[in-house]
Amino acid sequence: MNGLSGMQPWRIQTQGAQRMALWRPWLTVKRGNISSYAQRLKLPYIDDPTNDAGDNVRSGLRLDIMPVLATYNSNVIDNIARSAQLLRDAQLIINAQAAEDLQQIEVASLQLSSAQRVLNIDKLQALPIYRQRQLLHHWLGQDEPLPPAKQLVDDVFMLSQRGDADHQTALFWQARKQSYTICRYRQQLYRLSSEWSKWLALPLTKQIQPLSNLVVADAYSAAAQPVSVTLRSDDNFIWQVQMMPDALVKLLDSDQDDERFEITFAPLGRQQRVQTALASRPQAGKKLYQTLGVPVWLRESLVVVSAVSVQQDKEWPLLLVSPFESWILGTSRSLTDTTENIGVLDSAIRSNVIRNSLSINNAF
Question: Does a structural domain hold residue 282?
């Protein structure tokens, strides 16, 4: 409908980081009236020679088609302009409905601006089909100056309607600003930007942070501040784990005065078994991914946060984190292993002693 409604009298256009307002106040004034006005006041103006060439669609319509239509209806130009205005009004109503539907159907916890946008398929399918299609058109075109092609919208709609268990299908869209992959995992529909996919492919490395060093750094601040550890970053995105080291020291307190602890951040190995509250026993690999509901493109972005006792040479997994979620691991017990302290770390993690964060350095 945007195409049928013609050129817009007012439009916001973005180019890079710049936003421009385009205003066409004479759009509804006939060309002949403008020319007569300029000639009467002897105003200098520049006439585009392609207007009278007839060798392009715009001038061809003006020179050849419009005069023929005017022989059938002398008000044809006014009628076309009025229809375009009605279509613009209708498009605004459709856009408002799509935006309202989107607020109800998008998965807010998995959104990352233009990088990753996610829809709940169950809620999508509860809408009438015509609103599903319009919502998908609106959802796909976010962050882009030009809308997606109807064929792409149709393909995404068919992907959302599939009832089989095969979620390997991926659709590609080369848009104006960047390219996107549209895919499905379980009952969620994803639109992933190319920059985000590149970031997810960056390797993770194991990091070791002596807890005593973190506490010393924290002691210089007037109030207890979280200490951030960067797990992965580039010019566009940064993924960090934030800790309250002084609170961790108290929780990891043991009977040995010289006990030293380290906090490690290590990529989850494909065969590494961990226990979460969602399973009755430790799991690894595909079984673990399915239990946690981790889609394929995020499976190389899982990190195990552990506490290590240097003297005892023991390691206690505390937390499994991804860029969007975190899971308390079932083995995260107090390092003193006393009955009365079981679950102390679990409750501390829930109190944000350790928390996960993902942010955008440079919005597209």
Answer: yes
